[in-house]
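Could you help me review a protein record that somebody else here produced? This is what I was given.
***
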Amino acid sequence: MTIACLAIASTGFSQNLGIEVFAGTSNYQGDLLESRYTFKGSKLALGAGLSYAFTNHFTARAMFMYGQIGADDKNNQDPFLINRNLNFKSTVFEFGVQGLYHILNTDYNRINPYLMAGISLFHFNPYTYDTLGSKYYLKPLSTEGQGLPQYPDRKEYSLTQISIPFGAGIKFSVTESISIAWEIGLRKTFTDHLDDLSNTYPDEAILLAERGPKAVELAYRGGEIKTGNPVFPAEGTIRGGPDFKDWYYFSGIHATFKINDPSFGGKNRTKGSKTSCPGPVY
C-alpha cells in the first residue's frame, strides 16, 4: 500500500500542469499621462500559457500576452500637456516567465492571496494618425532627433526590450481542477519610448531635411487645436521627461485549468479518495 501511495503521489505531482488563460485590460504610464496608475484609456488584453505547481506554495508559469496601450494629451488637465497635443497607440506582445508565491497552502485554502514576479521580453511599436486619418509609425520619423547625425547622444530605441513584471493577486479554487484569480501585474521597463516621447524638441529645419514634413507635423501638433501655438518649438524646448522610464501593466482575470491526475495534492485524499492514502503531514 505504501508503494502504491508513493506511485500515485509521484504521478500526480509530475502531472501538475495547468493551462492558463487571461482576459483583462492593459495600459501604460508615461509622459502622456498625468497619473502614475490609472484605468483611463484601458484597452482589452488577452493571454495564454502554461503553469506548473512545484509545491503547495510555489507555482511557475510561462505566458504569452497581448494588449493595446495608448494615451492622448486631449485627456489631460495640464494646459502645457493639452497644448502639446500629442498622442500615441501601440500593440504590446509579451512573452514572460513568472513565479507565484501563494501565501497559504493551496491544498487546504480555497481563497488564497499571492505575489508574482519574473522577467519578460516584449515588443511594441508606437504609432499615431494625422489629421487625414492616415496611420504613421513614430520611430522612423525621429521625432526627437533619434538616430540623426546632428544628435549623436540620441540613439534609436529598440522596439523589442526586457521588462520586469511583478504584482499580486487573489485566487479562488472553483473546483479541484479549475481556479480563477484577479491579478494586477505591473511591468517595469528600461525604455522611455513606449510613447515615442522622452526628451526635447529637435531643430525644425534639421528634422525637415532629414525626415521630411510629416515628421515635423507629428513631432509637434499644437497647431491643430485652437489654444495651441502653430509655431514649432525652438530646439531644446521640453517635450517629455527623460528622468522616468515608461511602464505598462495588465489587470484582469487569470483562469487555470489543471491537466493532472485527480489524486494530486491532499485535497482528494482528505475528502475520502478511493486510495485511502494518508494526507500530507506538515
User: Anything to note?
Assistant: Residues 1-14, 263-282 have pLDDT under 50 and may be disordered.
